[in-house]
From TrEMBL:
Domain HTH lacI-type: 12-66
InterPro entries per record: HTH_LacI, LacI/GalR-like_sensor, Lambda_DNA-bd_dom_sf, Peripla_BP_I
Record keywords: DNA-binding, Transcription, Transcription regulation
PROSITE patterns the UniProt entry points to: HTH_LACI_1, HTH_LACI_2
GO terms assigned for molecular function: DNA binding
Protein name in the entry: LacI family DNA-binding transcriptional regulator
Length: 339
């Protein structure tokens, strides 16, 4: 492990005390400086952590009370996928509006060493908290092995971490599937995203559960990689093998575009022959031929909620362990009632 990773420790820090006591580092600072605003039960808990770690506050630690860098660390995996990149843009916009800066580091992949190196780089920028955009489960596994000295807020859809925020992919998939069922469709195929994507997994689960609740058979989902090309190949596969379906629920809009292209080449009309629902509501979705029915995700609101949660954590205020926004259905011309 390189010296840039956050595992390196020479002596207990104020952040170690905060983690052990279950409070923010500002609260530890207030205890150290004998502020009257700290509850006695919290003071005792912090003092026990100080004693257990043999922590000795120094001048820098004492100066931390009230000291604010107004800088947030942000870790991404450099994904160009619409969801993660839009989440980053939403947070950057919210931070700028609140007069906060963001120090960004990219993990080149999801290997623990890469994630740890990115975290170590950001922690060197005097950040008040760390936000991690975790599109893959392996990122959570890498984080679990780290000893972090600042509060962490994770953006992930599985709800494995606390605190975490996300857009409820499961609920969105259920809404999309319910829309197709309400139009009279019974043979609904799901074009899924990559198997290691937590968002894709939640959308797959939502489709399956909704089909089962209506007594419908959920056929084997076909897995793409989020790109239009993979959607096109899956659309070709569906038509070449004569698979029976009247509707497609596709895990993102880009793959929907590829599917519609493949169907059109075979003379299959959307929505007259097959209805299609996508996910994300990318800016181009309303200009597809036909305009795409899809699930809209409010990434701007997610960015605002992320910043609010970060500030609540830093200020040691009550925070929801898991918070989710709900996608909304945008009905356009790619779906119609089944004759």
């Amino acid at each position: 492990m390189t010296s840039s990773t956050p595992r390196v420790r020479t002596s207990p820090t104020i952040f170690d005390v905060a983690r052990l006591a279950g409070v923010s580092h500002q609260t530890v600072s207030r205890v150290i400086n004998n502020h009257a605003s700290v509850r006695e039960s919290t003071r005792l808990r912090v003092q026990q952590a100080v004693d257990q770690l043999s922590y000795r506050p120094n001048a820098a630690a004492r100066a931390m009370v009230g000291a604010r860098s107004r800088n947030i660390g942000l870790i991404t995996t450099g994904s160009s996928d619409y969801g993660p990149s839009s989440t980053v843009l939403g947070l950057l916009s919210a931070a700028r509006a609140a007069d906060y800066s963001v120090s960004l580091a990219t993990a080149v992949d999801t290997e623990p060493e890469s994630v740890q190196a990115a975290v170590g780089l950001v922690l060197g920028q005097h950040v008040e908290a760390l936000v991690v955009v975790a599109s893959r489960a392996r990122i959570l596994d890498a984080l679990a092995g780290l000893r972090l000295r600042v509060p962490v807020v994770v953006i992930e859809s599985s709800g494995r971490t606390s605190p975490s925020l996300s857009i409820d992919q499961y609920a969105g998939a259920r809404t999309a599937t319910e829309h197709l069922i309400a139009l009279g469709h019974r043979d609904i195929v799901h074009v899924a995203g990559p198997g290691d994507s937590m968002d894709a997994t939640e959308r797959l689960r939502g489709w399956r559960d909704t089909m089962a609740e209506h007594g419908l058979v959920a056929p084997r989902a076909l897995e793409g990689d989020w790109t239009p090309g993979s959607g096109y190949r899956i659309g070709q596969q569906l038509t070449q093998h004569g698979r029976r379906f009247t509707a497609l629920f596709v895990a993102n809009d880009q793959m929907s575009l590829g599917c519609v292209h493949a169907l059109a080449e075979r003379g299959i009309r959307v929505p007259e022959d097959v209805s299609v629902v996508g996910f994300d509501d990318i800016p181009e979705a309303e200009h597809f031929a036909p305009p795409l029915t899809t699930m809209r995700q409010d990434f701007r609101q997610l960015g605002t909620d992320i910043l609010t949660t970060v500030l609540d954590v830093v200020e040691d205020r009550q925070v929801e362990p898991v918070a989710r926004l709900t996608p909304t259905l945008v009905v356009r011309r790619s779906t119609r009632r089944r004759d």
